[in-house]
């Protein structure tokens, strides 16, 4: 993301062309962008598996760990949504229009909130600029929350399929869990790189290859 930001231009007239520039002109820009784009999809797949595992093991009983985790999940969705708007294609524009307009359903202040988020009376340059800024800042907040998540988990301990106290039966992290995690990491990275090289736009939408146009 940091490397992409060096060549991206958060302007409604230039954003779409700057993405094209990254893909065609920047050295390995196509790979960096595809890894960033598909990496977000894989991030959520792994997060959903993590949530499913914790629901199955009743981990929500560890209130503090669970609440921090849900906060990370919600902030991740916000970050991903704002990132989806940045390429400024047709799906980016109309996705932003639909999602931001959901706030208009809030009684009395809904429309004011929508216009406050937009920075005007419609989605415009201010909207794209603030989405770019938040897309850059929110991951830093998420990183701090992940660290807090792990610190709290260290004190409470994790749950297990038997529902017993895991402090009684402990095994060393190395080599048991390290090898297990390394195997999982290699498997996921293999699938991830296969998607990037063979089916790079599998999780994308064809309409996002067209520049945003509010009249279409």
TrEMBL record:
CDD domains: Cytochrome_b_N. One of its GO terms (biological process) is mitochondrial electron transport, ubiquinol to cytochrome c. InterPro entries: Cyt_b/b6_C (IPR005798), Cyt_b/b6_N (IPR005797), Cytb/b6-like_sf (IPR027387), Cytochrome_b_N_euk/bac (IPR048259), Di-haem_cyt_TM (IPR016174). It is a multi-pass membrane protein. Keywords: Electron transport, Heme, Iron, Membrane, Metal-binding, Mitochondrion, Mitochondrion inner membrane, Respiratory chain, Transmembrane, Transmembrane helix, Transport, Ubiquinone. GO terms for molecular function: metal ion binding; oxidoreductase activity; quinol-cytochrome-c reductase activity. The keyword Iron applies. It comes from the Eukaryota. It is found in: Mitochondrion inner membrane. GO terms for cellular component: mitochondrial inner membrane. Pfam families: Cytochrome_B (PF00033). The main subunits of complex b-c1 are: cytochrome b, cytochrome c1 and the Rieske protein. Component of the ubiquinol-cytochrome c reductase complex (complex III or cytochrome b-c1 complex) that is part of the mitochondrial respiratory chain. The b-c1 complex mediates electron transfer from ubiquinol to cytochrome c. Contributes to the generation of a proton gradient across the mitochondrial membrane that is then used for ATP synthesis. This is Cytochrome b. The lineage of its organism: Eukaryota, Metazoa, Ecdysozoa, Arthropoda, Hexapoda.
């Amino acid at each position: 993301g940091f490397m992409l930001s060096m060549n991206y231009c958060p302007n409604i007239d230039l954003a779409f062309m700057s993405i094209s520039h990254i893909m065609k002109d920047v050295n390995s820009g196509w790979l960096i962008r595809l890894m960033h784009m598909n990496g977000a999809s894989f991030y959520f797949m792994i997060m959903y598996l993590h949530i499913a595992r914790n629901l199955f093991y009743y981990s929500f009983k560890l209130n503090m760990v669970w609440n921090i985790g849900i906060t990370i999940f919600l902030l991740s969705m916000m970050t991903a949504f704002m990132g989806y708007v940045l390429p400024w294609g047709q799906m980016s524009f109309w996705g932003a229009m639909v999602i931001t307009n959901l706030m208009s359903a809030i009684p009395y202040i809904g429309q004011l909130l929508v216009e406050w988020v937009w920075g005007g009376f419609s989605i415009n340059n201010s909207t794209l600029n603030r989405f770019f800024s938040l897309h850059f800042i929110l991951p830093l907040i998420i990183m701090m929350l992940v660290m807090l998540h792990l610190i709290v988990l260290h004190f409470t301990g994790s749950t297990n399929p038997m529902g017993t106290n895991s402090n009684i039966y402990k095994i060393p992290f190395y080599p048991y869990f390290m090898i297990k995690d390394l195997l999982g990491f290699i498997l996921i990275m293999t699938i991830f790189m296969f998607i990037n090289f063979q089916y790079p736009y599998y999780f994308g939408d064809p309409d996002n290859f067209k520049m945003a146009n509010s009249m279409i």
